[in-house]
Amino acid sequence: MSARASMLSKLRACAPATAPDMPDVAGYYAGRPASTQAERVERLRAELTASHADVHVVSHAGWAGAVAQLLHAQGVRRLVRQSGAPGDSLARALPPALQASEFGRPLDEWKAELFEQVDAGFTVADCAIAATGTLVHLCGPHMPRTLSLVPPLHVVLIDAERIYATLFEAADGERWAARMPSNLVMLSGPSKTADIQQTLAYGAHGPARLCVFIACEQGEAA
Amino acid sequence: MSKHPMQFVPTADFKERARGALDDDKLRKSFRGAMDFLQAKRRNQFSDEHERESLRDLGSAIRKYALARLPDLLEELESKLTRNGIQVHWAENAEEANAIVLDIMRRNQARRMIKGKSMASEEIELNHYLAEHGMECIESDMGEYIVQLAGEKPSHIVMPAIHKNKADVAKLFEENIPDTPYTEDVDELIQTGRRALRRHFMEADVGLSGVNFAVAETGTLWLIENEGNGRLSTTVPPVHVAIMGMEKVVAKLEHVVPLVSLLTRSATGQAVTTYFNLISSPRRSGELDGPREVHLVLLDNGRSQAYADEQLRSTLQCIRCGACMNHCPVYGRIGGHAYGTTYPGPIGKILSPHLLGLDEAGDLPFASTLCGACSEVCPVRIPIPDLLIRLRNEAKRNPNETVATPLRGQGAKHSAAERVVWQFWSGAFKSPKAWKALRWGATRLRAFTPGAQAGWTQHRTPLKPASRSLHDMLKDRDQPE
Ligand code: SF4
Fold first, then answer.
1. What is the CA radius of gyration of chain A?
2. A residues 142-161 closer than 8 Å to B (CB)
3. How many CB atoms lie within 10 A of CB B343?
């Protein structure tokens, strides 16, 4: 008998005849007070800041300039950006000395380059979760998995309209269960560890710095 | 890679190791500090008692529901993963799981593996097995990397190097990583670890990880971490192999939502960890990175024994948060290595007898005061003390007795003499005549009680029957004057 058949038959032989009712997760989270967008922006900002991210609330017109300024101030020389309209706008706002390219090729062709020469990655989060200060990335053809992971500085743009209050609301509202991307990543701050004597240190294996730009109507122009 | 050989600690001699740990001041300090820290962090996360208790109810219900439907959910998980392009393997025991991983490596002409944190791989001693077959395995979680350099095993399931202090790590790095001066600055130490491991992520042929939750509905592996090494291990190498205990499946994606909240808050007192990494497929056409092959190994290794018994099944509700060890007065004093098992502390005491047999688990089910701190904090409400008592009974049971759901190693602690004593005792209580005779004898022959009474008199004065029994004294009192 194969391991599969043997494992399943052992379990089937003693599984209870009837399962309890399906737990009501939606019911548990229902009836929480609704939040306004301004509250969600504020909570997202506060939580991300507490997780050691650097957060800027900016206007829709001004975000690209603000990002460009930050990259310049950080001394970034080489940036890789997510392909798409926001990345194009950012590229136009950057000083010519700053080399900004799209991911472009399969990772296998330039792994060492990404690991060793790229200073920063720019991505647009699909949505965000205010309660925990979390940015959601749906990885796929236009969002490489390593872009938010390998470069030491990660810059993220998030539209204030796309902020959910909780993880449950995001999973439910975005219907993740029906349309899972190959890799869905939620990130809530720069990479960190407390593995040495419970002492918190940043930049363990992922980005040491996370800069988040929340674009909204009330945001400051650069 | 390590100068030290790997150590494999037998589960016998628990008492001796515990004594050694109790005498080790440095170890005691490391654990006391860590326990206080983790307890306070958890407390802060659960300040609203009502919310905490209702969330624990929900978490427990979700895990119970998943276990009740385990065989169905495993088949659903397999079919969804397969549809998504992830290859599923089944392993009844450690040998099969190891052989599956080795075979995947060989088929891919792989030699180097980078590992994210995986307790299941510790359980099957994968590193040791692969090393014997000429494969290089590097642990990339900072804590795991530290214990690997030291030639040790993790002493905690969430924080593997919890028994080491800064000075220990500073020395290890100085000795094992080229061009590393001694420093106790934690930021510098972490940067040293990061630099040392960077190349391994780039060059590894295979990345291995554990799994925190597997979602049957969508065919998704949900991984939780803070460092980013888990994401690197599952993203950069061309092949990703995940390994998980078969009980970790849940029915619906939304079922993970309360469970992750319970897990991160109970484990490290964080509302959320830095990364939730939800893997549902290898690299699809048009995608520029991600592994080209993803495999999942489903591991039984004794879990089906716990599953077979209605009471012991609750062991499998565990989400491996480690809160039970962080609050255990025994674990907090002797640390993780004294147990000699992959999973230490309260969860280890209830799980190891299934993985290893009651004979191998030896003293573990008995190494508890039954204070109940573990079940009070367990986010999925596993009644750990009840399970310990049950396992003690099974260990004491006559090995030849036939029971409905026999456990491996039944009767390992059976003692005919002990049986006789208990039979005598219960007989004396059952019959008034026998009880009377016992009373009569004990009060008259009290002068003959020995002064040395085995373990009892080690720290206490000897027991001696009173000159008059309570029964007789009451009788006198009730006599009219
Ligand atoms: S038994 Fe409960 S407290 Fe212990 S690790 Fe498992 S889930 Fe956490």
1. 21
2. 144-146, 149-150
3. 24
Nearest atom in ligand 1 to the alpha carbon of residue B320 is: 5
Report the complex ipTM: 0.97
Q: Is B162 helix (H, G, I), strand (E, B) or coil?
A: coil
pLDDT digits (tens, 9 = 90+) for B66-90: 999 999 999 999 999 999 999 999 9
Specify the higher pLDDT residue, B480 or B287. B287
- A119: Cβ contacts below 8 Å, ≥ 6 apart: A74, A75, A76, A77, A78, A79, A151, A152, A153
Tokens of B384: 């750990």
Spell out where A86-200 has E strands.
Answer: 99-102, 120-124, 127-129, 134-139, 153-159, 163-164, 183-187, 192-193
User: Of B46-60, B69-83, B424-438, which gets the smallest average pLDDT?
Assistant: B424-438
B226 near B178, Cβ under 8 Å?
no
pLDDT, mean of residues A65-91: 96
**What's the predicted TM-score (pTM) here?**
0.94
* Every domain of chain A and the residues it spans: 41-192+199-221
A204 in reach of chain B (CB within 8 A): yes
A205 Cα to chain B: minimum distance (Å): 5
Range with lowest mean pLDDT among A42-51, A143-152, B155-164: B155-164
Q: Do A194 and B268 touch (CB under 8 A)?
A: yes
CATH class of A41-192+199-221: alpha beta
Number of Cβ within a 10 Å radius of residue B9: 15
Structure tokens given for B420: 């006789």
